[in-house]
Amino acid sequence: MTQPERITFRPHHFLCALGFAGVGYSDAFTKNVYHIVQGRLRAPFGGETEITVIETADSICAPCPERRGSGCSKFEKITGLDQRHAVALGLSPGQTITWQEAQTRIRNAVQPGDLAQLCQECQWRPLGTCEAALKRLHET
Fold it and tell me: DSSP string spanning 99-132?
């Protein structure tokens, strides 16, 4: 049996994965995120999935049309998102945590309504899917 591909996330992608609802920058990007979120994290035993924190393009970024090598065309915006999320969730580069631990950190550190500040530059925030997912997480 082959080992599943290791998942890497920039700090802000932990909340993106929590709130993912099937939209993205392109069809290839959306399909990739769907595979990671639905196929791995939300699958049975998905909470045991290990995710390593990195500061560059990660598993979610792989087919993103904004990706530039290991970086992003929206460097300043993404760096700001990553910095705020890393502080809020107590994440540091090279750290590996499970998806269950990530959800616990999110539940303990991010309250409904916090996304207005934490995710202020995110173009997907107005959709409300992340806020709805955060509220559900707090209800469980």
Answer: HHHHHHHHHHH--TTTHHHHTTT-TTGGG-HHHH
Encoded tokens for 35 = 């595979």
Helix (H) or strand (E) holding 19: helix 13-19
Contacts of residue 87, Cβ cutoff 8 Å, sequence gap at least 6: none
Question: Nearest Cα to 135, choosing from 113, 118, 120?
Answer: 113
Residues 106 and 31: their CA atoms lie apart, in Å, by 24
Asked if residue 39 lies in contact with residue 88, where contact means CB atoms within 8 angstroms, the answer is: no
Whether pTM > 0.70 for this model: the answer is yes
- Give the pLDDT confidence of 91-137 residue by residue, as tens digits: 999 999 999 999 999 999 999 999 999 999 898 999 999 999 999 99
